[in-house]
Each structure stands twice: as structure tokens, then as C-alpha cells.
Specification:
Layout: H1 10-24, E1 28-34, E2 40-45, H2 48-60, H3 64-71, E3 75-77, H4 88-96, E4 101-109, E5 112-121, H5 129-155, H6 170-183, H7 187-201, H8 205-213, H9 219-222
Helix pairs in contact: 1-5, 2-4, 6-7, 6-8, 7-8
């Protein structure tokens, strides 16, 4: 369901992400949108830490990002230590990166959820009622622009990448499809197996996907 983030122009990244950082006094922000096939693209990240937190949730398949996407409601985690039971791998790893609090807000166009805004703080802190309302309002107002940007960048492979925004993980989709064919299983199960292998070997999901796509790893041989 979820590919890796796509590159974004630096000026556009600043235009979309920085207002959240400035208005809500957080240490980082990232914006991800989803296409009609349910594939995720990250269109901006305000910092290297925000980009890593976004990629981490993708790699692990857990975290506030996914909960906000599924529920359609803001997910507030003012202290990651308190959420180890909900997202054990994400919470532990994110704290190791120096993240103390995370907040996720669904981006909506009408009734449709088209993406998620992820915010982070280096130390535990709470958002008050006004800040939560403001963040959700900003997320909804940004949704259309974020979708347009993601669509344009997907159609333009020559768009220059930015250090703060990871490259598009099209290979993860390709690898998922190949694993699905190798094992005659569902796409959901294939992605779970891809992530599980990455976690068990300590390799990034993108590295395992590359090995599958280029014929260096066949999941059917792992089950023999």
C-alpha cells in the first residue's frame, strides 16, 4: 500500500512544510499524499530528522501516520515513552533518533482522506486544543496543493531531488508484486514479508526491495 517518498523542489518544500513548523512551534514536519491506488508519496520534509521519521514509519509499517490515515482523526503522542505498546518498534527507534513527541493529522478534501501531515518535537510536549484545531485546519487547506505537487512530480522524473526528501520507492511496489507472484499471496502479505525480512536482517526496506527487483533475492527460496 505504501511506497517511499518522492523528491520535491526546495522552494515548494519550504512553502508546504515550514508553515506548520512556524505556526505550531514544532521541530519538524512532513507531508505525504496517496494516489487512487493507495500508494504513498512524501512531497516534503522540513528537516533531515522529519524525513527520517517519515521513512521509519514506512519501513516499519507502524506509527501515528498509519493510525491517522486509518481513523481519519488526529493522532497525538505528546510523549513517545507512553506509546511503546501501540507502536513498539517505531517508538523505540524514534526515541533513539532524538524524537520525544509526534503528532499526525489526516489531510482531507471533502470526506476523502488524501494524505497525512506528520509533526515532531525533540522533547515531549503537548498541543493545546487551539493548536490541534489549527494543525487540522492547515492540513486540510494544504491537501489540494500537496496532491497537485505529488502528481506533477510523479509525472516529471527530471525534477531535481532535495536532500531533505527521500527518493520515490517505486522498487518497493515492484518488489511487493514480485513477492506476491513468487508466493501466490496477497499484496498486503507480500509487503509484510518484505518488511519482516528487512527487520530481521537489519537492512532498510529499500535495500531488500532492490535485491528482489534485481533478482538477488527470491522469497520462494526462503520458504523451502
Amino acid at each position: 500500500m505504501t511506497p517511499e517518498p518522492i523528491p520535491v523542489n526546495a522552494d515548494q518544500s519550504t512553502e508546504l512544510c515550514d508553515p506548520f513548523v512556524e505556526a505550531l512551534h514544532v521541530d519538524g514536519a512532513s507531508l505525504s499524499v496517496f494516489d487512487v491506488a493507495g500508494r504513498q508519496s512524501t512531497v516534503c520534509a522540513s528537516s533531515g530528522l522529519a524525513a527520517r521519521a517519515d521513512a521509519l514509519q514506512f519501513e516499519l509499517g507502524e506509527g501515528p501516520h498509519w493510525e491517522a490515515l486509518t481513523s481519519g482523526n488526529p493522532v497525538l503522542c505528546p510523549n513517545l515513552t507512553d506509546n511503546r505498546s501501540s507502536w513498539p518498534m517505531f517508538s523505540t527507534t524514534a526515541q533513539g533518533l532524538g524524537i520525544g513527541a509526534v503528532f499526525a493529522f489526516p489531510m482531507k478534501i471533502g470526506a476523502a482522506i488524501v494524505g497525512v501531515v506528520d509533526l515532531l518535537c525533540k522533547t515531549p510536549r503537548r498541543l493545546d486544543v487551539h493548536q490541534v484545531s489549527l494543525a487540522q485546519s492547515m492540513a486540510n487547506r494544504t491537501a489540494t496543493r500537496a496532491v497537485r505537487l505529488a502528481t506533477r512530480l510523479t509525472d516529471d522524473p527530471d525534477e531535481p531531488p532535495v536532500e531533505m526528501a527521500p527518493a520515490l520507492r517505486l522498487e518497493v511496489h515492484q518488489a511487493t508484486g514480485m513477492i506476491q507472484a513468487q508466493l501466490d499471496t496477497s499484496a498486503t502479505e507480500a509487503l509484510a514479508l518484505l518488511r519482516g525480512h528487512a527487520f530481521s536482517t537489519g537492512a532498510p526496506v529499500s535495500t531488500v526491495a532492490y535485491a528482489v527487483v534485481h533478482g538477488r533475492l527470491d522469497f520462494s527460496s526462503l520458504t523451502e
